[in-house]
Amino acid sequence: MTDIILASQSPRRKQLLQWAEIDFEIIVADTDESYPDDLNRQDVAIHIAREKARAVQQKAENKIIIAADTIVVLENEIINKPVDRNDAIKILKKLSGSHHKVITGVVILQGEKEISFADVTDVAFHHLTQEQIEFYVDKYKPYDKAGAYAIQEWIGVIGIKGINGDFYNVMGLPVSRVVKALQQF
Question: Which member of 3, 23, 30, 69 is catalytic?
Fold first, then answer.
């Protein structure tokens, strides 16, 4: 398959598509990541991914566009990317010792044809100490990550008690579902 665009600057999404041996190029466009308040959590992730795909579609007509957005949900509250060190520490304290959901909304778009879905992975954290949280935040600076962590980094190795669902979804892209969806094009 050729003429595939990844509408994301995420190095993790880029890496996952490369691992899947998909040829693509990256084009991004600034998009509004707000959403209607009445959307359920899965639809929030799809809505934001759709906005990203449509913004890039204006720059890359007739190409297949893959866009995704990942959110973290704890007790129905969306946990966004941290704004600074203190916010990252606060977020990780909330996630410590609890279960949360990682939801990635994916939109694959070409012309009028669209495939969209959300993938949900349940994640359980061990209790994290203040020292572990501060070490992680100071060393890895997870400011571009929903939920203030990356499962493939140190915090995932020592802090994740278990997951139920797609590991790669937690990294930012349920790549096996994306490959299956691309086959429909």
Answer: 69
Q: Cα 153 to the chain's mean position, in Å?
A: 15
Q: What is the mean pLDDT of each run of 10 residues along the chain (185 residues)?
A: 85 95 92 85 94 91 93 94 97 97 96 95 98 98 94 95 97 96 89
Tell me the CATH number of domain 4-183, given options 3.60.15.10, 2.30.280.20, 3.90.850.10, 3.90.950.10: 3.90.950.10
Q: Show the beta-strand stretches assigned E in the chain.
A: 4-6, 25-26, 64-74, 77-79, 99-110, 113-125, 160-164
Residue among 105, 100, 117 at smallest CA distance from 45: 105
User: What is the gyration radius of the CA atoms in the chain, in angstroms?
Assistant: 16
Is 119 one of the catalytic residues?
no
